[in-house]
Each structure stands twice: as structure tokens, then as C-alpha cells.
Structure prediction request, 192 residues.
Amino acid sequence: MDTESPKAARPAERIVLPRMVLRRLTEADVEAVHEAVTESFPHLHAWMDWAAEPPTLAGQAEFLRHSAREWERGSQYGYGMFGPGGTMLGAASLVDRGEPGTLEIGYWVRAGHTRRGLATAAAGALTAEAFGLPGVERTEIRCDEANTASAGVPRRLGYRLDRVVDRPVKTPRETGRGLVWVMTREAFTARG
Prediction:
């Protein structure tokens, strides 16, 4: 994405959905993020390489500072999923991995809030947000072949399985076979 110009297009910082708000994470969210990640650590550790060690408040603060820098650079847009009363339900992101015209969508849901369609709603909203940006022609969702819950999200959203790739195993539950799900601008637009 073109981020050299100070007026470069950016996704919305706040997206209101029926059951939650996706909101740009800021340093003020450190306690909410720390609480959600700490509570969810066992299931995040199984699948997320960034959850290799139990979270610390200092580590979460550094993560949020890094996220702010990445947002400004235009390379990653990190959102918290917040429910009624401001409870953090998980997180989602749009990430530029350097492939022209492509953004990757990532997500996780807080323990106790899984299997409620939150990841699907967030990924669907970020898919629409991505295609609202100039130059984005493709979005991807990647997950390990064994992570059936995560693979259900792109499937429900109408993404197609583009390929299965070998990749290094970085977490306890990974198989080393990654699924790459794809939505093109053309397919998204055709959905009506």
C-alpha cells in the first residue's frame, strides 16, 4: 500500500457492528488487552506464535506502542473487538505482508466468547474495509490446517481455499501445513 503520503488512505479507526465495535487499539487499552490475552493464553498459545510466553503488562504496552507505529506506517491496522460495556472480546487486524494489492486478515477471540460468530463478523467487516481502500485487489486469511475453528471463518465468508503451503511449526498445535484462503475484489463485489 502507498503509505508515503500523509494523506494515504487508511481504514476506519472505528467500525460499529451489531454485537460489537471494532476499534483501533491504543496504548490506553493496555489493561484490557493484558486481561484478555492473559485469560485466553492457553488457547492463544496453541495457535499464535506471538503467544509463546505468558503475557506481561510491560509486554502488552510495548505491543501497543508497536501497533501504533505500524498503523502510522500503513503496514498493519490492529483493532480490538469490544462488546457492550467495553469488554474486550478479542482482536483483529489488516496486515500488509508486502504482496502488492493484498492485505491479510488475522483474528483471535477471547476465551469464553468463542463460537459466537465474533471472528466471522470481524473478518467480514475488515474484508469490506480492505476493499474500500484503493489498490487492494485481494484479501487473505491464513491458518494452520488443524485449526478448524479458524478455517471456518473464511469458509463462512465465501473465501476460497487457494492453496496449502508447507511452513515452519511455531506453536504446539500447528501441523506445518498452512491454509491460504482468498477473496478477490471481483468476487467480493459480485456477492452484492
